[in-house]
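Translate structure to sequence.
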């Protein structure tokens, strides 16, 4: 698959239509706004993570955002504050948004998981599955034009488990109701500062697609 993507990228192809994920039906299709959805999330006991978390981390930002970011799962600082991307990786994200002229208040930021996995363990299949209807409903309510996936878990959730970050980043995936731009997770950038330039370029690509 990677070779095929590289082949198309070398040809200068920017868009690849990919199959839509088969999504589970939202648990509560009647929800009309994010506030109602947040209340639903805060009652969730669908997996074990609710037992160890301090706060549910629902998501934050402009409910009418055209640009949405999806990360992996809350870390320790997010768990403390109940807000996404407020730790070191979040600070870097804020700084890089600022660098390209994107106002953090104007975008919406959410995670695949709404509860922190203890010891920052990778999200497990059952946890992702349990949380997925909430993410789908957030996307449905926010209706972003562009979704930037941060790291491999968000990428796989949106585009399928066969997607690899190294092969997908740099490509733009047109879906039925939004366009996905995969990029690195800000925590990866903390460990690999050389990748920051590429990340910034991905943010600029998103801006171009938004017509900014
Ligand atoms: N990493 C994530 O994926 N999400 C957060 O909210 C914080 C760190």
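Result:
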């Amino acid at each position: 698959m990677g070779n095929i993507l590289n082949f198309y990228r070398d040809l200068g192809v920017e868009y690849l239509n990919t199959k839509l994920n088969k999504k589970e039906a939202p648990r509560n299709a009647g929800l009309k706004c994010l506030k109602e959805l947040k209340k639903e999330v805060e009652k969730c006991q669908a997996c074990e993570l609710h037992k160890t978390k301090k706060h549910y981390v629902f998501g934050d930002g402009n409910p009418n955002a055209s640009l949405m970011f999806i990360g992996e799962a809350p870390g320790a600082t997010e768990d403390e504050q109940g807000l996404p991307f407020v730790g070191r990786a979040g600070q870097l994200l804020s700084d890089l948004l600022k660098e390209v002229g994107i106002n953090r208040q104007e975008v919406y930021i959410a995670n695949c998981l709404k509860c922190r996995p203890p010891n920052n363990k990778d999200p497990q299949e059952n946890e992702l599955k349990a949380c997925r209807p909430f993410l789908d409903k957030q996307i449905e309510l926010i209706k972003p034009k562009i979704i930037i996936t941060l790291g491999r878990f968000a990428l796989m959730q949106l585009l399928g488990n066969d997607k690899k970050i190294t092969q997908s980043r740099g490509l733009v995936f047109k879906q039925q109701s939004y366009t996905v731009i995969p990029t690195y997770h800000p925590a990866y950038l903390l460990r690999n500062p050389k990748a920051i330039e590429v990340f910034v370029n991905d943010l600029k690509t998103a801006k171009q697609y938004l017509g900014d």
